[in-house]
């Protein structure tokens, strides 16, 4: 439940103007509370139980936001950057008001599910290395991915820096003939292969470039990578790359229940 706060702060928080602009609007009689004109911009209101309107339009207050983004290629998972386009740049101005941030990171060329929120507690729970939240990806890999690779991933593989990964679940979905473009994209003769494989991989940690490095450890090269789930949250396949939407209440509760977070009242 939202806390009580000054009406000028509430309206400013919702992007309806600066505190001074709202103070002026109150004096002009543009703000009502429970149908009555507010006379004091410092009036304390409880947005959970009182009806606030600005110029006749109801103001629905919220102090947390949860957005599901289908991240496109070429965009970085950051709140700001002097040179690169960020995932925040994809949001409409109204959806930036509560200053959401990406929960974790996807590489610049990786697409798919990215959660944006300003709920620091939930983000911490989902990202904590001790929590081991499942993250599932689909990828096209240059190479004939087989049962030996699945067994290796299930045991944990050693990355290029000596780190041994936690057990991961690898499923081979499809195989196809590799193209010259695939081999060119791989950029290294040691990854040359006549086969490319479509796979699904679930990991429980988030090391730098982990999926790509896991496949390189078994002599194969990731060509495309897409995250399709994080914990119980599944990518909405109706979202085109670059599109986003708010999470439903059920999705938020699923995330909270998954991490054992008690909903604040």
Automatic annotation (TrEMBL):
GO terms in the biological process aspect are: enzyme-directed rRNA pseudouridine synthesis
| One term of GO molecular function | rRNA pseudouridine synthase activity
Q: Which SUPFAM superfamilies match?
A: Alpha-L RNA-binding motif, Pseudouridine synthase
The EC designation for this entry is 5.4.99.-
Read off the Gene3D superfamilies from this record: Alpha-L RNA-binding motif, Pseudouridine synthase I, catalytic domain, N-terminal subdomain, RNA-binding S4 domain
The protein's UniProt keywords, in alphabetical order, are: Isomerase, RNA-binding
Q: Which GO terms describe its cellular component?
A: cytosol
Q: Residue limits of the RNA-binding S4 domain?
A: 5-65
SMART domains in UniProt: S4 (SM00363)
Q: Which residues form a coiled coil?
A: none
Specify one Pfam family: S4
Q: Which family is this sequence assigned to? A: Belongs to the pseudouridine synthase RsuA family.
Looking up PANTHER family in the UniProt record yields: PSEUDOURIDINE SYNTHASE (PTHR47683:SF4), PSEUDOURIDINE SYNTHASE FAMILY PROTEIN-RELATED (PTHR47683)
Q: What is this protein called?
A: Pseudouridine synthase
Q: Which organism is it from?
A: Paenibacillus soyae
Per the UniProt record, the lineage of the source organism begins with: Bacteria, Bacillati, Bacillota, Bacilli, Bacillales
